[in-house]
Structure formats: C-alpha cells, structure tokens
Amino acid sequence: MLYQVLIVIYLLVAIALIGFVLIQQGKGADMGASFGAGSSATIFGSSGSGNFMTKVTTMLAIAFFVISLILGNLTANKVKATDEWNDLSSPAAQTESVPAASAEPGTANEDVPASSDKAEDNNDVPN
Fold first, then answer.
1. Mean pLDDT by 10 residues, the chain (127 residues)
2. DSSP-derived 3-state class of residue 125
3. What are the C-alpha distances in Å from 26 to residues 30, 56, 62?
4. Is 98 a domain residue?
5. N or C: which end of the chain has fewer CB within 10 A?
6. In a domain, 84, yes or no
7. In a domain, 37, yes or no
8. What is the total count of domains within the chain?
C-alpha cells in the first residue's frame, strides 16, 4: 500500500516539477525587459517571480529525490519468487500418478484400456 501511494506522489511531484521548470523565465529574459520589452512579471511582486518559483522548484526537486531514494530502498529489499522454469539448478519434483481404486472390488477400472487379441498377435512383427 505504501509503495503505490509513493508512486502516485512521485508521479505528481515529477509533473509539477516539469511544469514549474517550463514556466520559469531564463536568466536572459530580464535583459530584454530592461530595454523596454515589457514589465517584468509584476504578478509576483516587484522582485518578479524569481524567489517564489526558485523556492518551489527547489522544494519539488528535493521531494523528487527523497521519494526516489525511498522507492529505490523499498524495491531493493523485495525478493521475487523464482519461477520453476527459470531455476534449473535443482530437478523438478516428480509426481506419480496412481490409478484411482474402484468403488467395488470386482469391477474393472475405467482408466485402463481392455487388451485386445489383435494387439497381442502383432507384437512380433516390426513396423
């Protein structure tokens, strides 16, 4: 249960991290704004979006790496059950098939075919 919850959180953090990195402006974007290309992100205050976006990206990156390490640790301790076909070092367990005993002691077993006289006569002739 913990593994599935961490996988979902890991996916959400990864998507959010990609989104925040793509939203951020490059370092050269302020240069264009200083020459009159427009206002410099007044939505986040006078300092721009640098502080807020940088802090959120840092926190998401830390969460991404911590969850990655936790998931790696959880999967490293799991032992997979080996399939019988993959483990050829030991012989497979052989089962003996024992015909089922009939309910009444005088009746013939249905699994055993009745012998025919023709099959006994043809044993000496090679095919």
1. 93 96 76 57 58 91 96 83 64 68 58 56 58
2. coil
3. 8, 16, 21
4. no
5. C
6. no
7. yes
8. 1
